[in-house]
Amino acid sequence: MRQRALVTSMAAALLWFVLNEPAQGQRGQQVQLPDGNGKELVQTTCAKCHALNMITNSWGNTREGWQDLFSSMVELPKDQAAVMSQYLATNFPVKPAPEAVVIPGTANVSFKEWLVPTLGSRPHDPLAAADGSVWWTGQFASRLGRLDPKTGAMKEYPLKTPDSGPHGLVEDKAGNVWFTGINKNYIGKLDPKTGGVTEYPLPEGPRGPHTPIFDQKGTLWFTIQSGMVGRLVPQTGEMKVVATPSMNTYPYGIQVNSKGVPWYVDFRGNRVGSVDPVTMQIKEYTLPNPDARPRRIALTSDDMVWYTDYARGYLGRFDPVTGAVREWPSPGGRQSQPYGITVAGGAIWYSESAVRPNTLVRFEPGTEKFQTWIIPAGGGVVRNMMTTSTGNLVLAESGVNRVAVVEVRRN
Questions:
Q1: Under 8 Å between Cβ of 15 and 64
Q2: What does the domain layout of the chain look like in residue ranges?
Q3: By the 8 A CB rule, do 336 and 355 touch?
């Protein structure tokens, strides 16, 4: 168990890799590794927690990079670590990847990163809680984690159902942490005071609860990767799910606007959608480019819908009143794969998940100017981020098993 804050050098920023995931909660099919000294060690060590396609589909790495990476997942004797890192570097060397583009600007930030206690848990979504703590979902370890950023103290909460695959999480007004059990098809509630977990199973049929969010009345809304949106009333446990009007959709990120209307993005199509909070009728809006694949969503105070277009490398804005869409190429280019997004201080913040290393991007809507920073530990795919009550950011760095706080300094 390691609990240590990491402020890494630029060299360490290269030590990461991108994990391809065909669908959330599905770890893919096993593959055949090349022969060589270390093959059996890699198979027996890595395949305990994930499919080997996460290695074969990665961007590759140097010997030092591979060792730094798998050391965040599992502890090995020095001799075994040396064999495994050499095998991986020989057979899966660094591949060409989009380079991180650093754009200077007027904003100042500082990063602080922590390696989470359970190696290989792959933190997925972060939560900035009201008490100042930072939570994460340990998707591969079936547990939630809590960090006190002031002291660095961490605590993990095992879930009662093994292999739950906790994905998204959100806090209610009483301090309970709600999460989606994407592998076992339920919505969960963790009481941090007792560690007790209450599970609310989805109805028969829908599969893959994804991202949760509370509205102003305390109703929990969530996306479902099998083409649905759900609603749970915590006071009664009543749950209802509805299918999207279009077929073969993948509702992904979701937020609630100032009027209590949930908005989501469809990662399988060029669509955004809104849900009537009373009738649950869904209205879909088609984005102009048929290749658009919005993945995460953020709403500004004027209820404008901002999204990261993962497939095309764009930041987009949809006006719910006029239907107008504007888009800006992300600094890292078409293959940068913009992902996690949030709003802080009137600016749009998001991550580029495919550039090497990952970047944190700031976009100022008034001036339409970008500013970018290298994520020190590399990011390893920042799938989501959230703004704290003080205007800072919290990130989960899945591939490098870390959570981070980004302090945004005001000029």
A1: yes
A2: 19-91, 108-409
A3: yes
Q: 157, 179 in Cβ contact below 8 A?
A: no
Sheet holding 238-243, edge to edge: 209-214, 220-224, 228-233, 238-243
**This prediction's pTM:** 0.84
The residue written with tokens 């950023």 in the block is: 149
Superfamily name and number for 108-409: YVTN repeat-like/Quinoprotein amine dehydrogenase (2.130.10.10)
Residue 149, CA atoms < 13 Å, CB-side half-sphere = 24
Ramachandran category for residue 194: left, alpha or beta (phi over 0 → left; psi -120 to 50 → alpha): alpha
Beta bridge partners of 159: none
pLDDT in tens, 275-332: 999 999 999 999 999 999 999 999 999 999 999 999 999 999 999 999 999 999 999 9
State which fold the 19-91 domain adopts.
Answer: Cytochrome Bc1 Complex; Chain D, domain 2 (1.10.760)
pLDDT per position as a tens digit, 359-379: 999 999 999 999 999 999 998
DSSP string, 86-154: HHHHHHS-PPP-PBP-----S-EEEEEEEE-SSTT--EEEEEE-TTS-EEEEETTTTEEEEE-TTT--E
